[in-house]
Amino acid sequence: MKTFPSLARLLLLLNLLLAACSGPPGFKSTDISGVDWGKELALTDHQGQPRRLADFKGKAVIVFFGYTQCPDVCPTTLLSMREVIDRLGSDGGRVQVLFVTLDPARDTQQLLAEYVTAFNPGFIGLRGDEAATAAAAREFKVFHARQPGSTPDSYSIDHSTGSYAFDPQGRLRLLVRHGEAPENVAADLRLLLAGK
User: Fold this and answer.
1) Quick one: CA dihedral 92, 93, 94, 98, positive or negative?
2) Inter-axis angle of helices 109-119 and 73-87, to 10 degrees?
3) What is the reported pTM?
4) Among positive and negative, which fits the CA dihedral 45, 47, 51, 57?
5) 121-177 pLDDT, tens digit each
């Protein structure tokens, strides 16, 4: 009779240890689940269609803010995202990359379409007027500041370099650092696609 309570205690202890080991998902990117910003994005895509974040429910979504004349951060981020999608194999179709321009004056619908699809035909460029662009940047806490160039049209834009990852339920979950290894981003997206 004394063996049953000992066995029950042993099983309870084993269950507690297993529960402690499962813990939260092991994201490589910064987990920002539960923040009270980054909830809405309402802009026009590079084909002229109005888009909202809710349009992409059911997919993991990566949102990145930049501009087409960016000399370094933007093209390297989009190249990295192309590699991430490739690494995901068939799951790559369950991920949507959104590139939001911070330069609507120069980034026309046509230019945006040519730019983002050069990296991956499935990537979507988003734009708005100056007011909508500023509102989107505020909603995502994106820093951006125009720096004058040698001519009025040759300015550059300093901007935040992180990307934002949403789970398939449309919740903002991760801040992906610029330069994060594509294999790490792909691993994080697999966790989000698995419901973690």
Assistant:
1) positive
2) 50
3) 0.86
4) negative
5) 999 999 999 999 999 999 999 999 999 988 988 899 999 999 999 999 999 999 999
